[in-house]
């Protein structure tokens, strides 16, 4: 039987990498997004509004996916609004597809806010988990849109009889333009500005992050785990952490990144320098750089999401993820974190997004 994938959020970091891997593996792959057109060869793009059930029904009328991969969300001003909107996105899609009875599996991507709390209470004292974080860690007694999205998947699975998997990456490293959470490209943009202007490449975060152990998730290894879980019986109806499989300290990696860009990195002096403040007046500088080097993207905010990088690097604890659960079930993927960053930087350069 042919596997027919519907990747929801196909223009994002996670969705675009996943779509490419599915196509490479021979899956018929549809990509749903509000603004399609990421240039993935073989992707069947669909433009639809997840908040509009009538539009969804019209756009998906002729499509009966066997596997749904949900990789998108919308940022709102409060967690209550995040819950309302982002649970609706999942519910509308699964309700729209319910009558087709074609779905075998639904995979949902969330993240470490499952353990660290929502944006409004992110990594605050009183809610901090023991690390490494493990899948059996109970839900926090806080409102969290990740929990609401999970509950929508559970309810639809009970109704329609499909299996599911939940995937909880750490910070995802990969290429996407216009993405809300994009540390790798944010750091590339910041390093480029520092080099061009002669500013030191300051670490923006906390002492705990600078000195502590951390890990990240390459978009490619996240995609591999999602496909593995969707096609492996032992992985059905389970939640999985997913990270590269190595660990590092930012005090080491920061200098590695600086060396790649040939920019001066300053050692952390105990002062947090959030990128939202450091880059607040850099839009014109980026435009000047983009014009000078004839770059494809002249709007800095299409590349840099300083707020999210600050959120991750400003945490008051070291954070790493336990991968034992999926490894014991057979997922053995591994990715060197330096390669995650350096391969991304080279791709950005090759595609004329950074000089």
TrEMBL record:
<protein>
    <submittedName>
        <fullName>NAD-dependent dehydratase</fullName>
    </submittedName>
</protein>
<dbReference type="Pfam" id="PF22917">
    <property type="entry name" value="PRISE"/>
</dbReference>
<dbReference type="InterPro" id="IPR055222">
    <property type="entry name" value="PRISE-like_Rossmann-fold"/>
</dbReference>
<feature type="domain" description="PRISE-like Rossmann-fold">
    <location>
        <begin position="65"/>
        <end position="355"/>
    </location>
</feature>
<dbReference type="InterPro" id="IPR036291">
    <property type="entry name" value="NAD(P)-bd_dom_sf"/>
</dbReference>
